[in-house]
Amino acid sequence: MSEVIKNQVIIPPIDAINKRRKELEATGIDIINLGQGIVDFSPPEEILQEVAKEPGLFDYTPDPGLFSLRSEVAKRLGPPCKTEEIVITSGANFAFLLAATTLFNPGDAIGIFSPYYFNHQMVLSSLRLECVEIEPNDSYEYDLDQLEKITEEKKLKAIVLVSPCNPSGKVFGKAELEKIAKVCVKNQIFLLMDEVYKDFVYEDGLADKIPFAHTLEGMGDLAINLGSFSKLYGMMGYRVGWLRMPLKFIDQVIKVQDMSVICACHFSQRVALKILQKNPKFTYDYLPILKDRREKVLDRLEKSGLFEIFPSGGALFIWFRPKNMDVSADQEVFNILEKKHVCIVSGAAFGKAWKSWFRFSFGRCNVDILLEGANRLIEYFSELDK
Ligand SMILES: Cc1ncc(COP(=O)(O)O)c(C=O)c1O
User: Fold this and answer.
1) What is the mean pLDDT of residues 44-65?
2) In the chain, how many domains are there?
């Protein structure tokens, strides 16, 4: 009899907590759901109506996606990106899988800024790659000289970075990115940059000043960009994103795309294309709302004096832990759900150092609900502190 091959891939943490949340909701309990990193806006109805009338939607698109959409994405990324370097994917997660299967061999060591996006670690782990965590110091800063040392010692083949970061919300600034790029260029290793939250930066004007990976000096064929329409245009369920790889890798990427999904959903590609053509800065209308939520909820948590909060400036998350308490976040998220009816995510899945950390998202709920959620968290941890 054949055996199931087991590897080190973790159980998706959101699935586990969502399963229990749904059981509680089925009994009539109202849960404040701050778990998943999702937004509460979606593509304009008139765009959906217009696209629905377009001919040929029943068909596959070419494997790399609609040329017009690839071209719009290339425009978004800016020179020196070429349309031919863009592959439209079934979301950024799939883009990461395509990139990793193309670039890496089992056993390769990959550096990953920690806290990391757990789906990246899951992909690397399922491909039997070694994940080397790059952790911040006690002031939450990354020592980039140390990065250089780790790169050499561990013979890293690539560095994975999410900016703005899921889960910490940290925005890597231009100077930091330039230093990271220098390490990549010196060691001739890849930088896989997840730019899914690129527009979700709360300091006015800052988003436009942060460079895309492929524009960093000297990166040439070493930069890989991962992007998505999921959060950008509220298209989570449409499953459409992109991968930008240097041209020499595209044939290999297309092999995997063709043998798996063939192409991203045609309808979704057309919706994304229409929004990009008509109102590319669509997301910017929602940023003040997200900013307001973030500020109010941060203020409430900070004033409680109970939490250590990771300094952040972007994405959709607050990343925190209770001060002076050595809790197991894996257990506490279930206790919080049962006792306070708030759903948040345990930090344990985001790296070794984060077992007592928690993530919640301000992307989906309005300010009143968020503040109620924050109050209940404060209540929960004050009771635990006694
Ligand atoms: C950093 C990051 N990358 C990728 C994704 C997934 O994006 P997509 O829906 O395009 O697969 C998420 C979703 O939460 C994310 O937080």
Assistant:
1) 97
2) 2
